[in-house]
Structure formats: C-alpha cells, structure tokens
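Project outcomes to date are best conveyed with an example. Our students and postdoctoral researchers have been running inverse folding experiments weekly, and each run begins with a structure described purely in tokens. The record below, which covers 335 residues, was selected by the lab manager from last quarter's runs and is presented without edits.
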C-alpha cells in the first residue's frame, strides 16, 4: 500500500496544510517543503499578484510534490467564499456574500464559477461553503458569510453551490462543524460558546451538515467553539464526542475532517503541541497552520513524537492518511 511506502516523518507531514510567505516558489520554500513534506498548502492574499503568477506558483508546487511523492499530489487550498472572504480579487469574478444570494439557481452558478476559476488556476480545494446558520444577529464573525438565518435557507442555497463547485472538480469543505452561527465571540480572538440545548443544536446547527453529507460533501472543517450540551470541556476541534461519536458514528461522515486554523486564539496557543495531539486523537485528520514556521514545526514534531511513543497508534495515523489519499485520488488529476 502507498501508506506503507512512506517514512514516519513523511506520514506526519501529509497531515499538514501550511501557509507561507511570498508569491514565488523560491529555493527557501523548496527547502522547507523538503524538510516537512506537507500534504497541502493554503494560499492567502499575500501569495497573490495576478492570475498568471498564481498559475505558475501552483504548477511549481505540484511539480515539487510529484518529485517528492509521484503518487501523492498536493492539496492547494484557499478561502474563496465570496463577499469579504475572497483572497483573490483581480482577474477573478467578485462573488457576492452568501447572505445576499437570492436563489438556488444563482448559488449553483456561483459554485460553477468558483470551480472553473479556481481549478483553472491550479487550486483544488475551497474552504467553503459556510454551513453555519446565522441565528445570532450579534455574531461578529459569521453574519453574511452564512446563507441564511434558518437551516432550511442554508440548505437551499449552500448545497447547490457546493455541487456546482464539485462538478468542476473543486473539493468543497463545509464549515464550521458543528456550527458557528450562534456565537457572540470571534474564535480568531477568543473561545466562543454555544449554549443551546442538544435538540436545538441537532435541529438547527447540524441540519445543513447532515444535508451536505447526504449529498456527498467530501471534507468538513471543525469549529474552535465550545458546546456544553455535548462537551463542557473541549471545543469541537478537540472533542472526541463531537468529532468521532457525533460526526463519524451518528452522522456517518466518512470524509476528511480538517481543523480550522490552529493559530486562532480560541485554542491554547501556549500549549499548541498538546492541543494538536488532542485534536488528532479526537478525530481531526488534517491541520491548517496558515502562518508561523515555528508553530508549524512544533505541531509536526508533537504529532511525530506522539506516534513514536505510542500515544497515537499506527492504525489511527493510517486511518487519516487513507482518508486524505482517497480524497486526493478522487479529485486531483496529474498531468
């Protein structure tokens, strides 16, 4: 099997989706990638000048991956929701905020546009759609990033957009599981709490995710949010109940579970090495670390040591790697 051919360090690297500075594939970047063999990169505004530069950068990244592991292409991801969360603007269609989309037909067309434009530039993963229900008007981070204030409206619009993207070969990542809509804090800055009862959480927060899973959603991003009705001690990203019992066993999700950015202040960044291992043991497959080489290396080393000392078993590691490789095989074609 492909997994068996990788060294332990290469296996650990495949669990990371990392960001970097600059718009070019430099010798310094190549050396860094050689050292840690990440399974993917995430691009930001800082990595973009124009479409031609982006195409060249993505091509060079995939060429590096092909040289390293001929059978394992690279995830190249971006946050491209539309509205205020769209990293590439010039030479891309400026997409409306989710909350202003009027119909399923419009949502589907937008999804197709996302898929064509991003895959045409070499991007293969979009960290969208937002499946959060905008049920709290005071929410400082979701707002019009959500497709609506009811689960029915979110399902009506997010699903056709998701299907439009996927028809164009773009991996959709539903976020932020199990729901970031009823929060009053921004998880980039602090740890929010959703205090709703379990029946409300199931009817409201989980409904869009369940519908998306039923329609083939291949990947889900976790929320750095606390849900005391389910787990009073751990935010979703580090909660075995939420990620393994609820998402995997009860909801039947078999795809890739991706953390929200591990640099966000909702997590205990002073103990990020402990948090990363907790998250993996809870059910995260793939970690976003969008910046800071020292933190990226710290997470890599902590996961590596946890496997070496038996805290993370080989079978648990291989489960995540197999999900990641299955997703790459399904969506990413090699020239």
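After processing, the design step wrote out the following sequence:
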């Amino acid at each position: 099997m492909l997994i068996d051919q990788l060294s332990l360090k290469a296996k650990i690297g495949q669990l990371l989706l990392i960001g970097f500075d600059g718009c070019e594939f430099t010798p310094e970047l190549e050396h860094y990638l050689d050292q840690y063999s990440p399974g993917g990169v995430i691009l930001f505004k800082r990595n973009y000048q124009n479409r031609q530069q982006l195409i060249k950068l993505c091509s060079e990244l995939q060429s590096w991956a092909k040289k390293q592991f001929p059978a394992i292409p690279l995830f190249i991801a971006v946050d491209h929701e539309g509205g205020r969360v769209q990293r590439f603007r010039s030479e891309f269609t400026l997409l409306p905020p989710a909350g202003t989309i009027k119909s399923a037909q419009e949502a589907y067309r937008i999804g197709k546009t996302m898929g064509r434009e991003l895959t045409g530039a070499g991007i293969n993963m979009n960290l969208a759609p937002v499946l959060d229900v905008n049920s709290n008007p005071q929410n400082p981070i979701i707002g019009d990033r959500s497709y609506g204030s009811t689960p029915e409206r979110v399902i009506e619009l997010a699903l056709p957009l998701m299907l439009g993207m996927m028809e164009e070969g773009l991996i959709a990542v539903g976020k932020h599981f199990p729901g970031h809509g009823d929060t009053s804090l921004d998880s980039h800055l602090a740890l929010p709490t959703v205090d709703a009862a379990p029946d409300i959480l199931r009817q409201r927060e989980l409904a869009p995710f369940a519908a998306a899973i039923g329609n083939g959603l291949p990947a889900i991003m976790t929320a750095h949010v606390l849900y005391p009705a389910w787990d009073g001690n751990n935010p979703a990203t580090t909660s075995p109940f939420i990620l393994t019992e609820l998402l995997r066993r009860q909801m039947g999700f078999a795809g890739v579970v991706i953390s929200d950015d591990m640099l966000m202040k909702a997590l205990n960044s002073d103990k990020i090495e402990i948090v990363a291992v907790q998250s993996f043991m809870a059910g995260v497959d793939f970690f976003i670390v969008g910046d800071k080489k020292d933190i990226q290396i710290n997470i890599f080393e902590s996961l590596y040591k946890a496997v070496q000392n038996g805290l993370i078993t080989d079978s648990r590691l291989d489960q995540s790697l197999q999900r990641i490789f299955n997703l790459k095989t399904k969506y990413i074609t090699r020239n």
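The chain has one domain: 13-329. The beta strands are 16-18, 40-43, 75-78, 80-82, 85-86, 125-126, 171-177, 219-222, 256-258, 287-289. The training component of this project remains on track.
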